[in-house]
Amino acid sequence: MKTQHPASLSVIVAILVAVQGLSQLGFGQNQQKPADAVSARAATPSPQNQATPRQAGLTVADLEQMALSNNPTLAQAAAEIRAASARKLQSGLYPNPTVGYQGEQIRGGVQGGGEQGFFNSQNIVLGRKLGLSREVAEQERKQAGAEAEEQRLRVINSVRMFYYRALAAQEMVELRHKLSQVANDAVQTSHQLANVGQADQPDVLQAEVEGDQAELAVVAAEQNQLRAWRALAATVAKPEMPLTHLAGNLSDLPEGNPDQWLQAMVEESPAVKIAKLGVTRAEAALVRSKRERIPDLQLRGGLQQNQELNQITHRAIGLQGFAEVGVQIPVVNRNQGNTEAAKAEVERAHQEVQRVQLVLRERAATLLQNYITARSTVEGYRERMIPRARNVYELYLKSYRGMAAAYPQVLIAQRTLFQLQTDYIAALENLWANSIALKGFLLTDGLEAPSRVGEIDRPVREINLPSSTTTMQPQ
User: Fold this and answer.
1) How far is CA 342 from CA 166, 278, 288, 337, 375, in A?
2) DSSP state, residue 246
3) Ranked by mean pLDDT, which of 74-83, 111-120, 403-412 comes out on top?
4) Res 457: pLDDT
5) DSSP 3-state assignment of 434?
6) Which residues face 123 on adjacent strands?
7) Three-state DSSP class for 446?
8) Which pLDDT tens digit goes with each residue over 311-366?
9) pTM for this entry
10) Residue 19, Cβ neighbours under 10 Å: how many?
11) How crowded is the C-beta side of 287, counted as CA atoms within 13 Å?
């Protein structure tokens, strides 16, 4: 029977140290289920900022309030509403009267005075054209209000999307720091084993390389977190806001039925409401165009002093009054061209409603598939792959303790478990991004300027979603 070398005890001690480090990552033998493990990590601040076991931080509600108070696009949308209200006021104002001077034969006549006086002219608008113009402007004001609501949803959805992106990056930084600590412990252990002759130089170099890789992964994760934070800070219009811990649980899966989200999108989306208001506006403009052929009444009157002599009295005729009443007869121009154009606009507006609904369905199809795939992926990591990988690691570790397995097998199982954890965080981020876009009517660009009334609206713009490798770091 062989005598066990004292260094073997060092190996066992080193493995126990590694196990203790792994238990901090949620990989120990007596661990909670994956959902609880991720939840615990999400609530744990990074080691360099750790002050309490559960550090408070900014919530998504806090960030939404910041954005609603500071985002400049919301002020732009409010200004557009005021502008539309002012245009409505202007469209219903009565035309101003005209007051002026008139004179004839100023240097002629018997007395050389001619006729001089003043006049007042006024157009009387008939056919209720001013009221109909106000109706058209009112629909434009309602469109501006719908645009403002659309922009508010854009801002909120953007904040939520960047919040979960930053939260995922924060969790990735925490995980990478812990993995780096485990790698550093392995480097120290390899040096200790080499000192007692239980590890070769290649083993030490391999451990050092893996330690360097872990440190680079920490740097990459921190830079990714900083990038996500800067995007979030810009969306809430506080670009100088320092990096702050975010409160929240990334592993709390979104609730709701995707089919119901799609149906609500087609029926209740602000883009659809804006398109329907466009139909109402086009119909009001058509009614107004038909009334344009009703002519306005043109009135003109005044007083003048006539210096010509009366042939009977041989005195100046004196003060005279005059009046004119006219109307433009719509013989050739009955506004028929504009009326036909207004009819075409009504038809186009009806088609625009259908087009917007189809665009929403077309854009949502990809996101819906992405959401279903992401949710299936998350559930697969949580319920099957991570628990199995943990069991594999524990079995190899147990076999290694019994001298029935090689240590490289333990390392491979450990790396697989680490990689699954990083993939799990990336899948959670992707799941949240797609669910926010679907529940938020595909409105995600919170810094895109709101459309002006009358411009070609882009109700569905580019969806700002993360790629599947957004939170992945070099391995």
Assistant:
1) 49, 12, 9, 9, 48
2) B
3) 74-83
4) 52
5) helix
6) 298
7) coil
8) 777 777 788 999 999 999 999 999 999 999 999 999 999 999 999 999 999 999 99
9) 0.80
10) 17
11) 15
Q: How far apart are CA 108 and CA 405, in angstroms?
A: 128
Q: Residue 306 pairs with which residues in a beta bridge? A: 115, 318
Half-sphere exposure in the Cβ direction for 396 (13 Å, CA): 19
Q: CA-CA distance, 33 to 117, in Å (whole number)?
A: 98
Continuous segment of H or E residues that includes residue 103: strand 98-104
Are 218 and 180 contacting, i.e. CB atoms less than 8 angstroms apart? yes
Is 260:435 a contact under the CB 8 Å cutoff? no
Per-residue buried b or exposed e for 448-464, using 16+ beta carbons within 10 Å of the residue's own CB: bebbebeeebebbeebb
Given the structure tokens 């954005």, which residue do they identify? 67
367 to each of 257, 456, 464, how far by Cα in Å? 14, 25, 11
What span, in angstroms and rounded, lies between the C-alpha atoms of 221 and 67? Answer: 26
- Rounded CA separation 176/183 (Å): 10
Q: Are 68 and 155 in contact (CB under 8 A)?
A: yes
Which domains are seen in the chain, by residue range?
A: 6-70+125-294+330-439 (1.20.1600.10)
To which H or E segment does residue 325 belong?
A: strand 316-327
Reference 23, options 420, 417, 425; nearest CA is: 417
For the beta sheet containing 316-327, the strands, ordered from the edge strand earlier in sequence to the opposite edge, are 98-104, 115-124, 297-309, 316-327
pLDDT of residue 80: 96
How far is it, in rounded angstroms, from Cα 245 to Cα 42? Answer: 11
Tokens of 178: 């812990």
Sign of CA dihedral 54, 56, 57, 60: positive
